[in-house]
Amino acid sequence: MKKRILAALVASAAVLSLAGCNTNNNSNSGANNSNSNSNSSSSNTGDSSSNGGDNSTPAGDDFVVDKKKPQLIDTGIKPSDSEGKVINIYAWNDEFKKMFEKYYKVPDGYTVKWTINPSENGVYQQKLDDALLNQDKAAADDKIDIFLAEADYILKYVDSDYTKNIADIGFSNASTIYSYTADACTDSNGVQKGMSFQCCPAGLIYRRSIAKEVIGSDDPAAVQEALSSWDKFDEVASKAKDMGYYMTGSFAATYRTFSNNTEGKWVDADGNVTVDPAIKNWIKQTKDYMDKGYTTEAGIWEDGNNIHQFKDGKVLCYFGPAWYYNFSMGNIKDQKKDADGNVIDETYGERNTVGDWGLCVGPQSYFWGGTWLLAGAQTDNPEIVADIFNAFQSNEKILKQMVEIDSQFVNNSAVNDSYATKSDFGNEILGNQNDWAIFANGAKDISLKNATGYDQLLNEKLQDNLKDYFKGTVDLDTAWGNYVKTINEAYTELKLPEKLTLD
Amino acid sequence: MTKKHKSISYAKWGYFFIAPFFIVYIVFQLIPLLSTFYYSFFDYYRSGLKVIGPEFVGFKNYATLFTPDSNGQIGFLTYFGNTMIMWIIGAVPQLVFSLLLSVIYTSYRLKIKGQRFFKTVMYMPNLIMASAYSLLFFTLLSNVGPINQIIMSATGSTFDFLGQVWPARTVIAFINFIMWFGNTTILLMAGIMGIDQSIFEAASIDGASAGQVFFKITLPLLMPILVYVAITSLIGGLQMFDVPQIMTSGNGSPNRSTMTLIMYLNNYFGTSKNYGMAGALSVIIFVITAILSFIVFKTMNSPDKGKKKSKKARG
Question: Where in chain A is the domain with CATH 3.40.190.10?
Fold first, then answer.
């Protein structure tokens, strides 16, 4: 009898496990869950006693950043026993994770669980939405404490009940933040749901060696003079083409410069989609550039664009904020290594172009991206969440390390301004040009008033679908028709114009 | 006591053993299937984080699927066409190639050595995830990839594999071909090895040529397996998703010419979790699959079955 039961159990286990395999195969997730405990505090040599309970005004003036040795900063938080032991953070890449683990000392006995899903095609949002809708059923230690969001879709979460009023957990904005970062995560009733650790004024990043040939100088002021309007930009593009260079590496390179200077929103309150004149200008420019061979058909995140950032690259201009050349162009910091992988020469790898870049405002000032931290409505770690938010807006020891080690343009005007005027501060990628001087100006003008919760797919799919038109595979009407279909499949409730007229 | 012993029936254990399958089937297959039918009659989707519905709307979702766009095209039929085209480009050569390979490998005249090795090698592509395979080809064939560098150095210009309609379709069909021909070959080999060897021997004694053996013996007796292979391949083809989805980043580019039915379904389901539209589309795919399978089954099976029976009767 026992044997029979055992056999039945084994059989059912076998069947069940097969069924399990099957369902796994069917899911198309690119999920990539990674757990990580924060580093131990061995490298923390900071004076944690001096900033006991008062996090908002740490003594940071005399703090000296050691670029080789990041310090874990103890904010001195002593969480009460009601706090859960696991801090759950959802993100789409490890930009914030890396800085968090380098600088923020998690209280002893607490662990951080990171859930990272890629952002493309809305995968991150899908996974996050599923998790948020299941918060009621999740165990306390599995409830989302913090999740990251981008400007393109942050409103979707801010205007929902799944984010927490952070005034309730004892957080208030420091006077040094850039006000648009608070506006972006404030809902229609004026309740603020999160904060940002960065500010993203963007500029034009040019290749110095190519600029010397095409423009005749690599001095930021001279390059800015040559590229200060779109008409001048076109002239230089034609000159670059004649000399065998591309003006931009991707057909979508200038998209953000146009789309973040729009006059109105993508979607109005009734779900009507309007194509802003600025977007139409981008379409006209891009079609022209593709026809004339000023740019390539690669997307901004594709190899076809990125290979031009290396030694043999042929692209004059990239567009982006500080995080673009520091984080997305990270591969240009190629180092010469011996057979065992030891670094022989830090500055001369085969692909290394560090120092061959310069920064100027470009034809139009704009911003791009930015990452916000939102508090999950049901977080079981309100004290730690508030402490993290505080630390990343006003703990100068953390912020100064972020500026000097990670080149993050932090969300603190006092810290940024102190670097903007420093003569010995610069970025080695840009040949030690002081990029903060340019960004500190641009940051004050940023406004996010035209954001809607639909922007990510509307922006991403516009580029994807119009690519056929830019390449000449189909006419504009067909490409626009495909865009309308794509958007209506994703968002049934949106109403798009049937035809797009560019003039 | 003796009476009791007589009444012991072991039959009931049979039910215990098949129970796990039925439980798993009902929970993971039958209930989802029925709820798909059910929700296809509802407006039920998410707008942002707000759930809209479920609200009964009758056949509205089906009507939407069959509404032509401004160019008079019915999207659903276009994507069905794309799916079938890519399936046919991949499946027909695959069937011929697999048949050829399986005949060669099972031939008692050739007696090829290292069969196990070749079987493993042929089956290997099927073990690699479709997504990994697609990414590999995506990188190989990209405009800055190694294959285009070779073409560039030979001809002076690159060839846009994934940016043109027919090359893109062919590449996708080719990946599916590479992934599945090993599986088909092994199925067909099993089928051929199941045929009585004495028939082949008799044929060779009678002086039949290799071609005659193939067309008069192997092919007719292999028909049941061929039908099975054709139908499973058709169902798999209709559900083509992972390769084109990854090769085109879900856009079905260029000009939606590589958009398959399941990618279309995924568009509805991905962002807004539109159970209504996705459900309606699933039901239609279900009906199409059933009809096509029935046609394949009828055309390939019925005339040969008659022949086989008469042969058996004579034998």
Answer: 32-41+55-200+369-420, 201-368+445-490
Confirm or reject contact between A174 and chain B (CB < 8 A). Answer: no
How far apart CA A280 and CA A262 sit, in angstroms, is 10
Q: Two tokens at A267?
A: 């979607």
Q: What per-residue confidence (pLDDT) applies to B5?
A: 59
- d(CA A60, CA A77) in angstroms, rounded, equals 18
Is the CB of residue B284 less than 8 Å from the CB of residue B76?
yes
DSSP labels, A10-34: HHHHHHHHHHHHHHHHH-----EEE
Average pLDDT in the B110-130 region?
86
Q: Are A92 and A148 in contact (CB under 8 A)?
A: yes
CATH topology of domain A32-41+55-200+369-420: D-Maltodextrin-Binding Protein; domain 2 (3.40.190)
Residue A46, number of CB atoms within 10 A of its CB: 17
Interchain CB contact of B163 with A (< 8 Å): yes
CB A375 within 8 A of CB A167: no
pLDDT at res. A1: 46
Q: In the beta sheet, which residues pair with residue A163? A: A376
A3 pLDDT tier (thresholds 50, 70, 90):
low
The phi-psi region of residue A293 (left if phi > 0; otherwise alpha if psi is between -120 and 50; otherwise beta) is: left
Q: Return d(Cα A321, Cα A408) in angstroms, integer.
A: 10
pLDDT of B3 over the 80 cut? no
> Does B274 touch chain A if contact means CB atoms closer than 8 Å?
yes
Q: How many domains are there within chain B?
A: 1
- The answer, for A21 touching chain B at a CB cutoff of 8 Å, is no
Structure tokens at A6: 């055992």
Q: How far is CA B37 from CA B28, B199, B272, B279, in A?
A: 15, 50, 19, 6
In this prediction, residue A171 carries a pLDDT of: 86
Q: Which two tokens stand for residue A59?
A: 């003594």
What is the average per-residue pLDDT within A302-325? Answer: 90
Return the residue of B nearest to A463 by Cα: B251
Query: Closest by alpha carbon to B123, among B192, B190, B184?
Result: B184
Q: State which H helix or E strand residue B220 sits in.
A: helix B219-238
Q: Are strands B50-56 and B42-47 parallel, antiparallel or unpaired?
A: antiparallel
> What pLDDT was estimated at residue A36?
38
- Contact status, residue A452 vs residue A266, Cβ threshold 8 Å: yes
**In chain A, how many H helices and how many E strands?**
18, 13
Domain CATH code at residue B100:
1.10.3720.10
CA distance A403 to A414: 12
Q: Is residue B241 part of a domain?
A: yes
- CA-CA-CA-CA dihedral for A411, A413, A415, A416, to nearest 10: 90
If you average pLDDT over residues A3-19, what whole number do you get?
A: 49
What was the pLDDT predicted at A207? 94
Runs of H (alpha helix) within A247-343: 255-259, 277-292, 303-306, 322-323
* Gap between the Cα atoms of B200 and B213, Å rounded: 7
- Which pLDDT value is given to residue A7? 53
Residue range of the domain that includes B148: 73-272+281-314
Q: Do A485 and B256 touch (CB under 8 A)?
A: yes
Cα separation of A339 and B220, whole Å?
Answer: 61
Nearest Cβ partner for B272 among A467, A485, A492: A492
**ipTM of the predicted structure?**
0.84
User: Who wins on pLDDT, B308 or A78?
Assistant: A78
Residue B271 to residue A126, Cβ atoms within 8 A: yes
Give CATH for domain A201-368+445-490: 3.40.190.10
DSSP state of B258: T
> Which pLDDT band, with edges at 50, 70 and 90, does B302 fall under?
low
Distance CA B205, CA B209 (A): 10
